[in-house]
Structure formats: structure tokens, C-alpha cells
């Protein structure tokens, strides 16, 4: 019985050998197409030696990957929102509107770019690379005693809000670059002055309307203090 079954199987498998080559090719292609169709519809499992997979398996894998990508994206957004909520944007979040914005100014052979709460860069006007002068770390304040030009640009005298940018690119044979940004009241965001106070330690004076209320309040307190002293 076993010998008869094997013989019949051989006859079926060898049937194509009795057909003309065009007919053999046609049958072979149809069998291949049928196998692919059965695999794609999940009816027939792909053989271990075949790299193809059923359509159901491929669709499930793609759906899983899309869901995983969406989850990772949501987790990244949540982390960014949490970090943003923890970041100091000044009283009442007055500086939040500047997030993601940059201002620049040409000075000498360089252009300086201040990106609020992000980085400060120095770019050569002659082309080439750029130098990072610091990454934002915190808001602060300092007592200043500066001048004000005839057009009203300058930090003046008193306590001023500052932004500290640290851990920039390392100087050759020196420290990592850092920049202290001193803010003063102005009608628009504008870099007024950039100076290197010591090796790789920079100071940038910037005008912005975001500190005008704070400046007015400080001036009011100063005037009140002088009035008490006069009394």
C-alpha cells in the first residue's frame, strides 16, 4: 500500500514533465501565485525556508509598530511638557511666549544668536562653523551700574533680571564658555551689546518688554526708599 501511494505521488509530481515547456511554466506560475495568495490570507503558513509572511502577520506587526511609535511619541511629549512646567519663565510666566524664539546681532566679525531658554551661539561672518557660548541653566538677577545711550539702549543702574547660560564649548586651554545675559526694559527684543569680560566668559546686554513691569516696580521701590530716607 505504501509503495502504491508513493508511486501515485511520483506520477502526480512528474506530470509536468510530459507537458510542453510553455505549459509547464504556466502551471508553475499559477501554483506560485496560489501559494502567495494562501499565505497572504493566513490560510497557509509560510515555510521555514521562505522569507515571506502571511498578510495577517505582517499587518499585525505593522499595527503593533505604529502603536509603539505613537506611545513613544506621547511619552516624549509628556516628558517635554513636564520639563517645560518645571522651567522658570519669570513672574507669571512672562517669558514663556519667547520659548523657541531667537534674536541675533552682528558685532565685529561675528554674529551672535540668543535663543531664549536654549542656547547662545557665535557665528563667523566669514563662514565656517559656529561656537556655542552656553546652554540655558537658570534665571537670576544682578546689581548693575551701567549707562544708557541717547536712544535709550542700556541696562542702566539697579537690579536687573539675568539669564545664565553655561557649559558651552570648551575654550582651547581654558574653561567651557558661558554667558550672562542682562535684561533691561525696551520696546522690542534686541541684543544691544556683547563683550568678553574674561577668557571665554561673555556678557550680553539685551532689551525686552518682558522686564518693563519688573523695572517699573523696582524704580517705584527705590523712590519710596529715598522718600523715607528724606523723612
Please provide a written account of the structure.
The chain has helices spanning about 1-15, 20-40, 55-85, 210-230, and strands at about 100-105, 110-115, 120-125, 130-145, 155-165, 180-185, 190-200, 200-210. The chain is α+β, with helices and mostly antiparallel strands. It has 2 domains: about 1-55, no CATH class; about 90-230, Mannose-6-phosphate receptor binding domain (Cation-dependent Mannose-6-phosphate Receptor, Chain A). It has an 8-stranded mixed β-sheet with strand order 1-2-3-4-5-6-8-7. A hairpin with a 2-residue loop joins strand 7 and strand 8 (about 200-210). The relative contact order is 0.08.
Give the strand order of the largest sheet, numbering strands 1, 2, ... along the chain.
1-2-3-4-5-6-8-7
Oligomer kind = single chain
Rg, Cα atoms, Å: 36 Å
Distance between the termini: 126 Å
What is the β-strand count?
Answer: 8
What class would the helix/strand composition place it in?
alpha+beta
Q: Strand fraction band?
A: 25-35%
CATH-level-2 architecture of the largest domain: Distorted Sandwich
CATH class category of the largest domain: Mainly Beta
Uncertain stretches = 220-228
Helix content: 25-40%
The average pLDDT is 78
Amino acid at each position: 500500500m505504501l509503495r502504491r501511494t508513493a508511486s501515485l505521488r511520483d506520477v502526480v509530481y512528474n506530470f509536468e514533465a510530459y507537458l510542453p515547456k510553455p505549459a509547464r511554466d504556466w502551471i508553475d506560475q499559477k501554483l506560485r501565485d496560489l501559494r502567495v495568495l494562501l499565505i497572504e490570507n493566513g490560510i497557509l503558513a509560510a515555510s521555514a525556508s521562505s522569507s515571506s509572511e502571511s498578510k495577517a502577520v505582517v499587518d499585525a506587526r505593522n499595527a503593533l509598530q505604529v502603536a509603539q511609535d505613537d506611545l513613544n511619541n506621547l511619552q516624549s511629549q509628556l516628558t517635554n511638557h513636564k520639563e517645560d512646567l518645571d522651567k522658570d519663565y519669570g513672574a507669571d510666566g512672562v517669558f514663556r511666549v519667547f520659548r523657541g524664539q531667537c534674536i541675533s546681532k552682528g558685532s565685529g566679525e561675528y554674529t551672535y544668536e540668543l535663543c531664549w531658554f536654549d542656547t547662545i551661539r557665535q557665528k563667523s561672518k566669514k563662514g565656517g562653523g559656529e561656537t556655542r557660548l552656553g546652554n540655558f541653566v537658570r534665571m537670576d538677577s544682578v546689581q548693575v551700574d551701567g549707562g544708557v545711550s541717547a536712544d535709550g539702549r542700556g541696562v542702566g543702574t539697579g537690579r536687573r533680571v539675568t539669564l545664565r547660560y553655561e557649559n558651552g564649548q570648551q575654550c582651547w586651554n581654558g574653561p567651557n564658555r558661558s554667558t550672562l545675559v542682562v535684561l533691561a526694559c525696551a520696546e522690542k527684543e534686541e541684543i544691544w551689546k556683547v563683550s568678553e569680560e574674561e577668557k571665554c566668559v561673555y556678557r550680553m546686554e539685551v532689551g525686552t518688554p518682558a522686564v518693563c513691569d519688573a523695572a517699573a516696580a523696582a524704580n517705584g521701590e527705590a523712590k519710596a526708599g529715598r522718600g523715607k530716607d528724606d523723612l
